[in-house]
Specification:
The chain has 154 residues and is an alpha/beta fold. It is built from 4 helices and 6 strands, in the order βαβαβαβαββ.
Length: 154
């Protein structure tokens, strides 16, 4: 199985609530650079946090890739979600190639947990960073980090 982890693009600093922050113009551009890393790759599903910036990021990726399915919304992909609980939700899914669009610190902790088997070594993820993990099972410590793509910020 292949798991792609994408942190949302740069978002505006302020909104009524954190969940309502929208992508900046620069953030949209960075997301399209990240999406280019997925070009030609097969995806079975795209799941995103319910937060506006993650939904916008997922939609940009969906459009850029010509992905035919809808973007799924997963309430367990928010910034403060527990990576161990997320694994329980992921265990119920049958996709082999899955893209998760989410936030820090969650995305860094989830990647670290899957790669290292614990959360003490989170994988550094900037805005619009994309990590590719591969393994037979979504089990802590049993996934391998294949690549991390960071957008060069100007």
């Amino acid at each position: 199985m292949r798991l792609w982890l994408l942190r949302h693009g740069e978002a505006e600093a302020h909104a009524s609530t954190d969940a309502e922050r929208e992508l900046t113009r620069h953030g949209r551009k960075d997301v399209l650079h990240a999406a280019a890393q997925l070009a030609g790759r097969h995806l079975d599903a795209i799941l995103a946090s319910p937060y506006v910036r993650a939904q916008q990021t997922a939609e940009l990726v969906r459009e850029a890739l010509g992905f035919r399915g809808a973007v799924g919304t997963a309430p367990w992909l928010t910034p403060d979600s527990d990576p161990r609980e997320a694994l329980n939700f992921l265990a119920e899914r049958s996709e082999g190639d899955l893209l998760l669009v989410t936030h820090n610190p969650f995305v860094s902790e989830l990647a670290g947990l899957l790669i290292n088997g614990h959360r003490q070594e989170p994988l550094p993820m900037s805005t619009a960073s994309l990590a590719e993990l591969e393994g037979d099972l979504l089990v802590p410590g049993l996934m391998s980090l294949r690549a991390v793509h960071h957008v060069r910020h100007h």
